């Protein structure tokens, strides 16, 4: 098939957002008698799931301190539930297990979940939390300083590649063309974007949707948008000359045991476990103190990763070369190393006795990688350059399978209330999202 020279809609990125947006847009065009999937082209420089979506841990949760995030994720969880089997979705639930300094925040999350009709249970008090975990979940639970547990009964995790190929099948069934091995090198901009420049030629277009994950900063520059901005906070204070994008290394890994090793007291899949704590973390190897600062981990048995898979807090990557090649999957500098393996396996042992002395079973494989974070660490969903829709998920992406549904409507001038809090203008108006007491920048 000849290389295309014109498409009405060009979607860049064959990850969770690009595929979901293209599929939903095709359906919207047909429903509104405005066209069909034949008007839509997806291009990706590698292939389906070649970026962050393809190695995502797949966790799907509503544990957010920000009301806007909770509402948006509730919408996406409903989308996961519509085709759970097709997406490889495991609705096992999610547990936020926290120390006293997070007690009030997590309580507020629970109250908003009740308002949304998002089923969850809130356990309070150190004794009740330990009893709940040991009797209902893991009889070898031993984490210290836990005074609250938010047990979400919805959510869980999904198999990343299975979900992506399911979306690709849905899009192609609507007539969408997916073209891989095509790298975007720039744009023709004459007020609006008139063409997408690629390594194989120029594609004229009427509209562009960018679902490019950690490459958001590269496309931001191609679109000639500012590297640094002034930000007004919620108190009305102006913070000048703030860096627009920051890269963080998302540290994840897998313990190479059978997934059945991590089953609950009933021999079934447990909820995804997320522990934040201010208890000292000690080495499971020699008992030395790894950290006395606030720390956190998440983990779950995962048949896709063939073990116990999870991660810990990210760290900021300062290296300038990231701006050129932002994705660290092939770079040892940006993959979680032995320090992470030691920390994470020790953290597993802090949580459950069965994980003591398991460091030698840690398996290094592609997972996590780099993420491009906005100034307040939350997504930007907005139109730039008049006809270019930017989906910059700030590494919240994979769980947001429903964003494509909302974006498709917005592309057709049907503004979506759920996306309003995530406009770029929030940095100018002081409507940035509030910050929680979690050690994770995205909670």
Q: Output the radius of gyration.
A: 22 Å
Overall shape: globular
Can you give the mean pLDDT? 92
CATH class of the largest domain: Alpha Beta
Q: Based on DSSP secondary structure assignment, what is the total number of beta strands?
A: 25
Q: How much helical structure, as a percent, in the residues?
A: 25-40%
CATH level-3 fold name of the largest domain: FAD/NAD(P)-binding domain
Give a brief outline of the structure:
With 443 residues, the chain is of the alpha+beta class.
Question: What are the SSEs and their pairings?
Answer:
Layout: E1 6-12, H1 16-31, E2 40-44, H2 52-55, E3 59-60, H3 67-82, H4 84-87, E4 89-90, E5 94-98, H5 103-116, E6 120-124, H6 126-137, E7 148-152, E8 156-158, H7 160-173, E9 177-180, E10 184-190, E11 192-198, E12 201-210, H8 216-222, E13 228-232, E14 238-243, E15 246-255, E16 272-277, E17 281-282, E18 289-291, E19 295-302, E20 307-312, E21 315-317, H9 338-351, E22 362-363, E23 368-373, E24 380-384, E25 388-392, H10 403-411, H11 426-429
Parallel strand pairs: 1-2, 1-12, 2-9, 5-16, 12-25
Antiparallel strand pairs: 3-8, 4-8, 5-7, 6-7, 10-11, 11-12, 13-14, 15-20, 15-21, 15-22, 15-23, 16-19, 17-18, 19-20, 24-25
List keywords for this structure.
eight-stranded mixed β-sheet, alpha+beta, single chain, globular, 443 residues, D-Amino Acid Oxidase, Chain A, domain 2, 25 strands, FAD/NAD(P)-binding domain
What features would you describe in this structure?
- The chain folds into two domains: 1-90 and 156-237 and 376-433, FAD/NAD(P)-binding domain; 94-153 and 246-373, D-Amino Acid Oxidase, Chain A, domain 2 (2-Layer Sandwich).
- The strands form five sheets. Strands 5, 6, 7, 15, 16, 19, 20, 21, 22 and 23 form a ten-stranded mixed β-sheet that branches.
- It contains eleven helices and 25 strands.
- It has helices at 16-31, 52-55, 67-82, 84-87, 103-116, 126-137, 160-173, 216-222, 338-351, 403-411, 426-429; strands at 6-12, 40-44, 59-60, 89-90, 94-98, 120-124, 148-152, 156-158, 177-180, 184-190, 192-198, 201-210, 228-232, 238-243, 246-255, 272-277, 281-282, 289-291, 295-302, 307-312, 315-317, 362-363, 368-373, 380-384, 388-392.
- The model is unreliable at 327-334 (pLDDT under 50).
- With 443 residues, it is α+β, with helices and mostly antiparallel strands.
């Amino acid at each position: 098939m000849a290389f295309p020279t014109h498409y009405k809609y060009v979607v860049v990125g064959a990850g969770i957002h690009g595929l979901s947006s293209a599929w939903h847009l095709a359906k919207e065009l047909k429903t509104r008698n405005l066209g069909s999937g034949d008007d839509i082209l997806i291009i990706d420089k590698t292939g389906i799931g070649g970026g962050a979506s393809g190695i995502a841990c797949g966790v799907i949760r509503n544990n957010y301190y920000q009301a806007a995030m909770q509402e948006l994720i509730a919408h996406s969880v409903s989308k996961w539930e519509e085709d759970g089997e097709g997406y490889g979705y495991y609705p096992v639930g999610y547990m936020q297990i926290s120390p006293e300094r997070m007690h009030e925040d997590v309580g507020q999350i629970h109250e908003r979940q009740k308002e949304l009709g998002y089923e969850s249970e809130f356990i309070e008090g150190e004794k009740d939390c330990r009893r709940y975990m040991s009797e209902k979940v893991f009889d070898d639970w031993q984490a210290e300083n836990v005074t609250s547990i938010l047990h979400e009964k919805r959510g869980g995790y999904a198999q990343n590649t299975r979900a992506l190929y399911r979306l690709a099948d849905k899009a192609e069934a609507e007539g969408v063309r997916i073209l891989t091995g095509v790298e975007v090198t720039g744009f023709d901009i004459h007020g609006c974007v008139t063409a997408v420049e690629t390594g194989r030629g120029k594609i004229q277009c009427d509209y562009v949707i960018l679902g490019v994950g950690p490459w958001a900063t590269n496309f931001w520059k191609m679109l000639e948008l500012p590297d640094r901005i002034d930000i007004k906070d919620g108190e009305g204070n102006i913070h000048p000359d703030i860096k627009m994008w920051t890269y963080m290394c998302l540290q994840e890994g897998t313990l190479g045991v059978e997934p059945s090793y991590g089953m609950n007291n009933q021999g079934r899949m447990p909820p995804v476990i997320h522990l934040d704590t201010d208890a000292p973390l000690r080495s499971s190897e020699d008992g030395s103190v790894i950290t006395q600062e606030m720390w956190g981990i998440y983990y779950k048995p995962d048949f896709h990763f063939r073990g116990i898979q999870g991660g810990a807090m990210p760290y900021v990557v300062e290296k300038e070369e990231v701006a050129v090649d932002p994705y660290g999957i092939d770079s040892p500098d940006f993959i979680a190393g032995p320090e992470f393996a030691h920390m994470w396996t020790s953290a597993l042992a802090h949580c459950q006795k069965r994980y003591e002395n398991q460091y030698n079973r840690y398996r290094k494989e592609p997972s996590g990688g780099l993420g491009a974070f906005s100034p307040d660490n939350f997504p930007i969903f907005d139109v730039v350059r008049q006809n270019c829709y930017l989906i910059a998920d700030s590494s919240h992406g994979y769980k947001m399978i429903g964003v494509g549904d909302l974006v498709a409507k917005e592309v057709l001038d049907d503004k979506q209330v759920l996306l309003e809090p995530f406009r770029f203008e929030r940095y100018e108006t002081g409507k940035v999202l509030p910050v929680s007491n979690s050690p994770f920048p995205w909670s």
